[in-house]
Specification:
By secondary structure, the chain is an alpha/beta fold. It has one domain: Rossmann fold (3-Layer(aba) Sandwich). Helices cover 43% and strands 16% of the residues. It contains 8 helices and 7 strands; from the N terminus they run βαβαβαβαβααβααβ. A 7-stranded parallel sheet has the order 3-2-1-4-5-6-7, with helices on both faces. Helix 1 links the parallel strand 1 and strand 2. The chain is globular, with a radius of gyration of 18 Å. The mean pLDDT is 96.
């Protein structure tokens, strides 16, 4: 698939992984729409790169539709990348005081990290499906899970459940969308060092770096973005979840 001249929407495009993806796809010649709730960062990217910023809540249908419409207006929409984040609840299933894990927190985490991905994917698929095919291909959807989907740590049950759902949707969505010529691929990152960690970044690197088999450091957002670009360009990648983790496996704690 040709990235140059295609339109792309990056949900969570003002965050660490998303911003790196926006920069990578923009450099590759895509017309990029940054869909996020971080107005300051989104408008800064808009001014710096000439991309478009649309304030977007991944869990809200009208909000996502507006971002997709902006992307369609800029050219044939062929790329949807979802790297949005948000607050996630945590805690043991039963706490030390004997109380069960909060149900509302679980529901909210699922809403943000699973339902939001589903909402973006279904609407993006419908929009990409309206484009003219090129050699039988209309486009690609790239979602973001986590290695916590496979090795969730103690206290990560809501987040692990949500990311496990994203993994579980991947092959089914690829099969559902095959008649339209739309591919679906999920990236499951390990420990990535993003600007969101702020002053804690050095401490995280000191803790996680030695625990990564190779290379002995946390992942860089640019490495995630590089994989997104490859997924877009490689037409035979479909229905797959790709771990991007330096061969690390989360321990229980």
């Amino acid at each position: 698939m040709q990235i140059r001249g295609s339109s792309a929407v990056v949900v969570g495009g003002a965050g660490g992984l998303g911003e790196a993806t926006v920069r990578r796809l923009h450099a590759a010649g895509a017309n990029v729409v940054v869909a996020d709730l971080a107005d300051d960062k989104g408008t800064a990217l808009e001014k710096e790169l000439g991309v478009r910023y649309v304030r977007t809540d991944a869990t809200d249908e009208d909000s996502v539709r507006a971002a997709l419409a902006e992307a369609e207006a800029a050219g044939p929409l062929r790329i949807s990348v979802d790297a949005h984040g948000g607050p996630a609840s945590g805690g043991r299933l039963v706490g030390r005081d004997g109380s069960p894990l909060d149900l509302d927190g679980f529901r909210r985490t699922i809403e943000i990290y699973l339902t939001g991905v589903f909402n973006v994917m279904r609407l993006a698929a419908a929009a990409i499906g309206r484009q003219d095919p090129v050699d039988g291909d209309r486009g690609v959807i790239v979602n973001t899970a986590s290695i916590a989907a496979y090795e969730g740590q103690v206290g990560q049950l809501p987040y692990a459940a949500a990311k496990g759902g994203v993994v579980g949707m991947t092959l089914v969505a690829a099969r559902d969308l095959s008649p339209l010529g739309i591919r679906v691929v999920t990236i499951a990152p390990g420990t990535f060092l993003t600007p969101a960690y702020g002053k804690a970044a050095d401490q995280l690197e000191e803790y996680w770096g030695p625990r990564i088999p190779h290379p002995k450091r946390m992942g860089a957002p640019a490495e995630y973005a590089s994989l997104v670009e490859h997924v877009c360009a490689n037409d035979y990648l479909n229905g797959e979840v790709i771990r991007l983790d330096g061969a690390v496996r989360f321990p229980p704690k």
